[in-house]
Write a structure and sequence with these properties.
365 residues
């Protein structure tokens, strides 16, 4: 997710540091503990990447119903946050970790930072997202990393926007694409994995050689790519970006509508649906959590319908629960990616570092 440098709304909403939200205005004390009993903690700590967000009223409803106060500890992007949990393995900074995605999942599981727990309502989660049969992590959301295009640019040029990875290496799209560094950015890594999924171990390097020859621009992260270099976003227009193609998310067009001033009737950007890689984010109970019961309750909440239906407009991702409904702005202005490229977590675990190193040598150096 992750990570998630995802889209303007999430990037603006995210804030580095520790945030505590409580329906009661502070940590509650357990008055039911008898004399000599150690009081049970009524605070449950959620460690996450910076882009985790939830509507205050939704979180407060959980706090009121459960009796727990949720403390949120945001820890940078997904990779940085995961690294910190690996370093504090067995003595975690919190009770639940949210934000490890399928590109980093094997690393988290191999380091044993999670304790197995089967959430209540697990049967309601779509089976394709259940990647850990031992239930050390639970899928929470999904999102598709895809090339986005500036509709106005292609209309003015009377040029059809590219729709597939193959299209991007055609001469008519020379010098039009900006992507993120696969070594430093979650969307950048996802786009690299899309090429691996499409062309295989024997073909992806040749594809990137052609993409480089066709003028692809590489920048450090999503914020720079989308809000500075991409001509189709509100931020990119202000920055006079001149690249009408960018690696972003399938949910980016609804965000452009939501935050447009004035709000447009149609999204100014589109999605090249044959360029996508599906990112799935997970949460898990941390091994050594001080409040495991509170952590379990929080995980149950994260897969509950209330939170799942709140997520799309807070983090601009898709629910993983079968009966969760998307907001109208998603269904009207978003797209459904039926066949994203896929690389198994095992293959990613085995090859990720060498793929990124080879990609860096080929494209950046």
């Amino acid at each position: 997710m992750s990570t998630t440098q995802r889209i303007a709304g999430a990037a603006l909403a995210a804030a580095l540091g520790v945030t505590t939200l409580s329906a009661c205005g502070g940590e509650a004390k357990d008055k039911t503990a008898g004399a000599g009993d150690a009081p049970k903690s009524k605070t449950v700590t959620l460690v996450s990447h910076d882009s985790f967000n939830v509507t205050d009223s939704v979180l407060k409803e959980f706090e009121q119903q459960s009796g727990y106060t949720v403390k949120r500890l945001k820890s940078g992007d997904a990779g940085a946050a995961l690294n910190q949990e690996i370093l504090t393995k067995g003595s975690p900074r919190g009770d639940v970790f949210f934000g490890v995605d399928n590109t980093l999942l094997s690393r988290a599981l191999d380091n044993g930072i999670f304790t197995p727990y089967q959430v209540k309502g697990m049967d309601g989660i779509k089976s394709e997202f259940m990647l850990d049969p031992q239930h050390r992590v639970t899928p929470i959301d999904s999102g598709d990393i895809c090339v986005n295009y500036d509709k106005q640019y292609f209309a003015d040029k009377k040029l059809a926007p590219p729709q597939t990875l193959d299209d991007l290496i055609k001469p008519e799209y020379k010098n039009l694409l900006v992507t993120e560094n696969a070594a430093t950015s979650s969307p950048g890594l996802g786009f690299l994995l899309a090429s691996v999924g499409k062309y295989g171990e024997d073909g992806w390097k040749d594809y990137w050689s052609k993409l480089k020859a066709n003028g692809v621009e590489v920048v450090d992260g999503w914020e720079q790519a989308y809000n500075e270099r991409f001509s189709g976003s509100a931020g990119g227009k202000k920055a006079k970006g001149d690249r009408p193609l960018v690696v972003s998310y399938a949910s980016s067009p609804p965000v452009e509508v939501l935050y447009g001033e004035p709000q447009p009737a149609e999204a100014p950007t589109g999605v090249s649906t044959g360029t996508c890689f599906r990112q799935v984010e997970f949460a898990g109970l941390l091994n050594g959590a001080k409040n495991p019961e509170g952590g379990k309750a929080l995980l149950d909440f994260l897969v509950g319908k209330k939170f799942q239906e709140d997520m799309p407009l807070q983090m601009f991702v898709n629910p993983v629960v079968k009966d969760a409904q998307l907001p109208e702005i998603f269904t009207k202005h978003g797209v459904v990616i039926d066949k994203p490229e896929n690389v198994t977590p095992d293959a990613i675990a085995k090859n990720r570092e060498q793929w990124v190193k080879a990609w860096s040598s080929l494209v950046v150096k």
